[in-house]
Design brief:
With 232 residues, the chain is mainly beta. The chain contains four helices and 17 strands. The protein has helices at residues 35-40, 117-126, 131-134, 180-190, and strands at residues 12-15, 18-23, 27-30, 51-54, 59-61, 67-71, 79-80, 83-89, 105-112, 115-116, 140-142, 146-147, 158-163, 166-172, 198-200, 215-220, 226-231. The strands form five sheets. A six-stranded mixed β-sheet has the order 4-3-15-8-9-12, with helices on one face. The radius of gyration is 17 Å and the shape is globular. It starts with 11 loop residues before the first strand and ends with a strand. The relative contact order is 0.26. The mean pLDDT is 97. The protein binds manganese (II) ion (MN).
């Protein structure tokens, strides 16, 4: 097969403890999935889960023990961090019951759903798609994937983000409104999941702005941390 120009190389994420990488298919994200974050965004209560996507090539892939770099994006004065547990799907399917969801999980990673909050808020106000606020270049930093067998009990894990050494976000994955299994059930009713899909499961409270030069350390207990610096 030949192409009119060289196709983009496949996007992949390293896997802890093995040479083979995880090839990425799609990136799904869950909105407002922790109660205290829903409140800080002006909402209350348990609503059905809702989803948006980021382009696969918006990932900023950071290897274990390294500090990645995310360029400060254009058009915003209010770039927010959202620390999130990311689920890596190893086996696809549709209409997956929550009780069967674990069989479809390859592993977990720590991710950041970086958000141009000013642009997202403007789109919300106008009832328009969030793409410009959520799906921009470099908007999805991610650390290495920890395979399921090495990940411990992620569903009860502490999740945190520090900026320049100070706590910004700290919660527990147990506080997800829709837990990982329920999220997979809902998501797979709307799309057929494929091996290589990533699911950013939502962020706890404490979202706030970062600026060029800031150093972010994201952690979920039991997983490899994510270290990233915002650059000009
Ligand atoms: Mn998010």
């Amino acid at each position: 097969m030949s192409f009119v120009f060289p196709p983009a190389p496949p996007v992949s994420v390293p896997v802890l403890g093995q040479a083979d990488r995880f090839p990425v298919h799609r990136i799904y994200c869950v909105g407002r999935n922790y109660e205290e974050h829903a409140k800080e965004m002006g909402f209350t209560g348990r609503e059905p889960p809702f989803f948006f996507l980021k382009p696969t090539d918006s990932l900023v892939v950071v290897d274990a023990g390294e500090t990645g770099h995310m360029p400060y994006p254009s058009l915003t004065q209010n770039l927010h961090h959202e620390i999130e547990l990311v689920v890596a799907i190893g086996r696809g399917g549709r209409n997956i019951a929550a009780a069967d969801a674990a069989q479809h999980i390859f592993g977990y990673a720590v991710g950041l759903d970086m958000t141009r909050r000013d642009l997202q808020n403007e789109m919300k106000k106008q009832g328009r798609p969030w793409c410009i606020g959520k799906a921009f270049d470099h908007s999805a930093p991610i650390g290495p994937i920890t395979p399921l067998s090495q990940a411990g009990n992620v569903n009860q894990a502490e999740i945190s983000l520090q900026v320049n050494g100070a706590d910004r976000q700290r919660s527990n994955v147990a506080k997800l409104i829709w837990n990982v299994a329920e999220t997979i059930e809902h998501l797979s009713a709307a799309w057929e999941l494929q091996p290589g899909d990533l699911i950013y499961t939502g962020t706890p409270e404490g979202v706030a702005a970062v600026v060029a030069g800031d150093v972010l350390v994201g952690q979920v207990d039991g997983l490899a941390p994510l270290n990233i610096q915002i650059t000009k």
